[in-house]
Design brief:
With about 160 residues, the chain is mainly α. The protein has 2 domains: about 1-85, Periplasmic binding protein-like II (D-Maltodextrin-Binding Protein, domain 2), CATH 3.40.190; about 85-158, no CATH class. Helix content is about 45%, strand content about 0%. The longest helix is centred in the C-terminal third of the chain and has 22 residues, at about 130-155. The two termini are about 15 Å apart.
């Protein structure tokens, strides 16, 4: 999806090659059977450090704390590009507000702990923690953004 967004943003032509996971795509990239891929910092940096791959940029809107020397795609010359990978905690829509608040407070407290934060950073995750209302607004924006990419690229579930 990230490369589809890049194609739509820039107008460049690429052929999408579907893979059943990151590892096979990285293997083919190292072997020269692919020209590029978009993958997580955690998956690619060992190969970058071993000089088997060259990292060009991070797709997130801001630089990664794990590899601050890498520019963002926007900084590398494609203004406005941002493809953040995120994880969130979701509950059924009918969950009482006090339960949602308690879950939020528990998670916020956990990711504020230095040892939890360090483990997350070591795994390539940057703890952000946001309020339930802010996260709901973010999700709405993500759905709108990716719906446009899906329609424009003609993506369909198989």
């Amino acid at each position: 999806m990230g490369l589809e967004l890049l194609k739509l943003t820039t107008g460049i032509r690429m052929v999408h090659v579907p893979y059943k996971g990151t590892a096979p795509s990285i293997t083919d990239l190292i072997a020269g059977r692919l020209s590029a891929t978009a993958s997580s910092v955690v998956s690619t940096m060992p190969h970058v450090k071993a000089v088997r791959l060259r990292a060009l940029a991070v797709t997130s809107a801001k630089r990664s704390l794990g590899v601050p020397e890498l520019p963002t795609v926007a900084e590398a010359g494609i203004p406005g590009f941002g493809n953040d990978v995120w994880y969130g905690l979701l509950a059924p829509a009918a969950t009482p507000r006090n339960v949602v608040t308690r879950l939020y407070e528990g998670v916020a407290n956990a990711i504020a702990q230095p040892e939890v934060r360090e483990r997350m950073l070591a795994g390539g995750l940057e703890p952000a923690g946001t309020t339930p209302d802010d996260f709901a607004a973010y999700l709405r924006a993500e759905v709108a953004k990716w719906s446009k990419v899906i329609r424009a690229a003609g993506i369909r579930a198989d």
